[in-house]
């Protein structure tokens, strides 16, 4: 049996790959459990400082597996239980202090939109499409869509997306602020596969940028923003003050602050000499 999600870790980067390409990486019970377990492992490992979320096949994620729902789920309680399992993985990523980049090529729809928004920096293909589509089959949004969408794009745009069968183009998704970048295939190789490869390559560049810098500080900045809603304004200011103090004590920060100060002194001396 093929694993429904793949987890690899190399040089500080954990790669989580949805691996149900024949079903457009839609979630069934097996993928739900594998997702929960893989995300929990990724955020718990001491050797992981950045996470890349991608998918095999021609789509990123089509949400829930409607065929599995129709043939293998007996009651609404079964659907609720399945969503709760997937939610555990969503919480693992969004509450961690590890930055997450998504390489979301092809189509993202339904609950896949929530999976996309688990990332802190999302990259799609120039030909990608993103939508909600829940109401088309009489269902309501889940997998964090109502928890994250309005915060990402604003309430009015969130309503526009969930109350119509609209699919955003990649350019619209960037303009709305739903994703950070749209990447095209290299000139001369304009295929879906080449575009997917380009999206994955760009996502890995983003992750490597974090790893080459102060990955811990990027992760803490992500945590501060992601967790802000749980605090009052005054509590958030206090948490910022506490966090920067903790960061200042790290070996990484000490070295970077010292290097910055040395470069500033050198620049100042050069300016004085020229004057």
UniProtKB/TrEMBL annotation:
Pfam family of the protein (one): ECH_1
Protein origin, superkingdom: Bacteria
UniProt-listed PANTHER family: 1,2-EPOXYPHENYLACETYL-COA ISOMERASE, ENOYL-COA HYDRATASE-RELATED
Keywords: Lyase
SUPFAM superfamilies in UniProt: ClpP/crotonase
InterPro entries: ClpP/crotonase-like_dom_sf, Enoyl-CoA_hydra/iso, Enoyl-CoA_hydra_C
Naturally occurring in which organism (per UniProt): Microbacterium soli
Name under which the protein is recorded: Enoyl-CoA hydratase-related protein
Family: Belongs to the enoyl-CoA hydratase/isomerase family.
């Amino acid at each position: 049996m093929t694993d429904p999600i793949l987890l690899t870790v190399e040089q500080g980067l954990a790669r989580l790959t949805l691996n149900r390409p024949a079903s457009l990486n839609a979630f069934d019970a097996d993928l739900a459990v594998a997702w929960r377990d893989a995300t929990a492992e990724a955020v718990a490992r001491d050797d992981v400082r950045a996470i890349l979320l991608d998918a095999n096949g021609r789509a990123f994620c089509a949400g829930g597996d409607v065929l599995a729902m129709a043939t293998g789920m007996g009651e609404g309680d079964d659907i609720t239980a399945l969503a709760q399992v997937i939610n555990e993985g969503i919480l693992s990523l969004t509450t961690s202090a590890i930055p997450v980049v998504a390489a979301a090529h092809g189509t993202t729809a339904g609950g896949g939109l929530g999976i996309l928004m688990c990332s802190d920096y999302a990259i799609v293909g120039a030909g990608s499409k993103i939508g909600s589509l829940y109401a088309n089959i009489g269902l309501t949004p889940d997998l964090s869509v109502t928890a994250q969408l309005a915060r990402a794009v604003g309430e009015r745009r969130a309503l526009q997306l969930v109350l119509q069968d609209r699919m955003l183009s990649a350019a619209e998704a960037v303009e709305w602020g739903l994703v950070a970048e749209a990447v095209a295939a290299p000139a001369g190789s304009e295929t879906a596969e080449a575009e997917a490869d380009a999206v994955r390559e760009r996502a890995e560049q983003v992750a490597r940028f974090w790893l080459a810098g102060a990955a811990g500080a990027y992760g803490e900045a992500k945590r501060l923003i992601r967790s802000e809603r749980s605090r009052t304004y005054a509590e958030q200011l206090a948490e910022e003050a506490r966090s920067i103090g903790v960061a200042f004590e790290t070996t990484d920060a000490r070295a970077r602050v010292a290097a910055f100060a040395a470069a500033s002194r050198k620049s100042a001396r050069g300016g004085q000499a020229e004057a």
